[in-house]
Design goal:
This protein is an alpha+beta fold and about 375 residues long. It is built from 16 helices and ten strands. The N and C termini lie far apart (about 50 Å). The chain has two domains: about 10-90 and about 115-190, no CATH class; about 205-265 and about 275-370, no CATH class. It is about 40% helix and about 10% strand.
Length: about 375
């Protein structure tokens, strides 16, 4: 074990670490132990149930995700960090704006976190700088930085270190910041002082469970990724199951519904970094306009964005589903024409979804929040 130098005051060091973190744009810093053995049964049960879907890397890593010292030998502590990501110009009542967007069928809805720069890049670079500052303070240090990029139980570490508690939607919640933030970690071989966990404050609330369009939150603190719109539009690389397509509404990348419904997000804070400001075309843009992008335009518009990782074909697949749902609400000749143009020369995956969209029967009803009856998917 690498102990802190005798000349270093542990509490003062942690205070300095938090100060450096704030200068780098982080909202909070804490420290967790590496013993996550009590989380292993729940992780194994989730994998055994197949709730990870086609994310085969989850099963491949298995329980390593709950063993930080196995992932990075020598790790003694995990410095946990969170960074708020609401765009800087976010105004009070932003949830109502998002619900209105979901109720506008012809408008493409992109998850808030993905409208700016790729958070992987932003957090990783800043965590690296934070680790370097720590090393400059204490001397030689073994460390590795992560943000949603390795087999790490991020929410578990965040909860154990006191960044917040695990909400019923499985995301981290904070009393003064809701859940609209990213998590990141620095694995270190230094025995930093541990910070205390906080108690949970979800109580009897089940707003996130009830609002989920596909009933993906199968029980409090349990999500079946195979039904989750974020998984279906981002991680899933095959056809989106037909029974679930109507539930996607106009969501073309990710889903924020469980967070929009959470009462704690009335306290969500805007980011301090410009990186998470929405880029042109990523908010309030019509599905037809996005279907008009060719692959070169898609790559140009998504350079440095988390969206690029799904690739052009999945992007168009998602747009086709959203277009089909919009056409169910009211017919739109321009949208049909955009679909037909996008279908020319497309691969089999995109062509199948465009055919589905163009053949979708129209409905006399209108989308409200895009949330269907849960019973439709039982």
């Amino acid at each position: 074990m690498q102990e802190l130098p005798s000349t270093v005051d542990a509490a003062a060091l942690l205070a300095r670490l938090r100060g450096w973190a704030r200068e780098l744009g982080f909202s909070q810093i804490a420290v967790a132990d590496v013993d996550l053995s009590s989380a292993e049964p729940g992780l194994q049960a989730w994998l055994d149930a197949g709730h990870h879907g086609r994310m085969h890397y989850m099963a491949a890593h298995g329980l390593k995700r709950a063993r930080p010292a196995e992932l990075v030998p020598g790790t003694l502590r995990v410095v946990t960090a969170r960074m708020d990501y609401l765009p800087r110009d976010t105004a009070p009542g932003w949830q109502a704006v998002e619900w209105a967007g979901l109720a506008t069928p012809e408008q493409a809805q992109i998850s808030i976190y993905a409208r700016g720069r790729d958070y992987h890049k932003v957090l990783r670079q800043r965590l690296q700088k934070l680790a370097e500052q720590l090393q400059a303070e204490v001397g030689p240090l073994g460390y590795r930085v992560f943000t949603d990029s390795a087999p790490v139980l991020e929410v578990e570490l965040a909860a154990r270190s006191g960044l917040g508690w695990r909400g019923k939607h499985t995301l981290t919640l904070h009393r003064e910041a809701g859940s609209m933030f990213f998590l990141g970690e620095i694995f270190v071989d230094l025995a930093l002082p541990l910070t205390e966990p906080v108690s949970g404050h979800c109580g009897e609330c089940r707003a996130c469970i009830d609002v989920c369009p596909t009933a993906a939150i199968t029980a409090p603190y349990r999500v079946d990724a195979r039904r989750c719109i974020s998984y279906l539009t981002i991680e899933h690389d095959g056809p989106i199951p037909e029974a679930l397509r109507p539930a996607l509404g106009n969501r073309v990348y990710g889903c924020d519904d469980c967070q929009l419904a959470c009462p704690w997000n009335k306290f969500a804070q805007p980011a301090v970094l410009a990186d998470f400001d929405a880029r042109p075309g990523m908010a309030g843009t019509s599905i037809a306009a996005l279907l008009a992008w060719d692959e070169a335009e898609f790559l140009r518009r998504t350079e440095g964005s988390a969206i690029r990782r799904i690739g052009f074909m999945r992007w168009r697949r998602n747009l086709a589903v959203a277009a089909g749902n919009a056409l169910r609400v009211r017919d739109d000749a321009a949208l049909r024409a955009a679909l037909q143009r996008a279908g020319q020369g497309s691969d089999a995956l995109v062509a199948e979804h465009i055919a589905w969209a163009l053949s979708a029967p129209r409905s006399a009803g209108a989308l409200s929040s895009g949330t269907p009856s849960v019973g439709a998917f039982e």
